[in-house]
Amino acid sequence: MTVLETERLTKQFGGLTAVDEVDLAIEQGEGVSLIGPNGAGKSTFINLVTRRLDPSYGEILFKGDSIVGMEPHQVVQLGMSKSFQTASIFPELTVEENAVIAALAAEHGSFRFNFFRHENAYPEVTRVADEVLKSVGLYDERESQADSLDYGNKRRLEIGIALAAEPDMLLMDEPTAGMSPEETKSTVELIKEVKRELDLTFLLVEHDMEIVFDISDRIVVLNRGAVIAEGTPEEVQNDPAVQEAYLGGVEE
Ligand SMILES: Nc1ncnc2c1ncn2[C@@H]1O[C@H](COP(=O)(O)OP(=O)(O)OP(=O)(O)O)[C@@H](O)[C@H]1O
Ligand SMILES: [Mg+2]
């Protein structure tokens, strides 16, 4: 199944074309990274897909249906989740309460149907939340106040919050920004683990090439808003157009 598909997706800011007729398809279970130099249009692309920005023209299909014109919360309910949003954590609540709220917020799952009519719905939501906390390694911290977690664990909780909505696809824009090398390593391991365990489909924007090559099934390279290369990590690494975009044509 194709989870996400864009057709000639374009965003112009005045005279600047930030995203230029991008065709992209991501299949169920695929981990795709979007890379490119500063200003290439990566964040703009993510903002179009998550419906924080309206395209100038072009189409966005999520699980086969057009989402152009939808509100951001509607696409979340359809199963698209974005991690690493600032302020996704409620600092004064416990780790578990944060996961429970996230599980409740997305209403596309079957057990959430008629949620308020089921008297044992809370244990069910808690069960989902606890499973997610186990998969991100925070189950033992579930009673802790979210605010008391260290930086690395807060980022793990943010991933947990995104996963608690049981998304069909997870979007991440520079998830390791601001992390220590150690925290970066454990976050990368976590994403790989969760992908394996949950057959997670993701779209990742990341500058660190080591991470990108490690984590991706496929890499899409943007430059000045347009896709200039696409393929496996090996294919992209050896692509002259990519070396040109990154190195300005300087050969090593
Ligand atoms: N709201 C906006 N109004 C006007 N121009 C914008 C806006 N948002 C982005 N741009 C411009 O669009 C282009 C693409 O920006 P974008 O933030 O998508 O790049 P990026 O690939 O995410 O870059 P970075 O790697 O630095 O995060 C840039 O030239 C940027 O200045
Ligand atoms: Mg960006």
From TrEMBL:
A GO cellular component annotation in the UniProt record: plasma membrane
BP-aspect Gene Ontology terms: amino acid transport
Keyword tags: Amino-acid transport, ATP-binding, Nucleotide-binding, Transport
Annotated PROSITE patterns: ABC_TRANSPORTER_2
Coiled coil: none
Superkingdom: Archaea
Family annotation (InterPro entries): AAA+_ATPase, ABC_AA/LPS_Transport, ABC_transporter-like_ATP-bd, BCA_ABC_TP_C, P-loop_NTPase
Example of a GO MF term: ATP binding
Domain ABC transporter: residue ranges: 4-249
Gene3D superfamilies, sorted: P-loop containing nucleotide triphosphate hydrolases
UniProt entry tagged with the keyword Transport: yes
Job of this protein: Probable component of a branched-chain amino-acid transport system.
Family to which the UniProt record says this protein belongs: Belongs to the ABC transporter superfamily.
This protein's name: Probable branched-chain amino acid transport ATP-binding protein LivG
Organism: Haloarcula salina
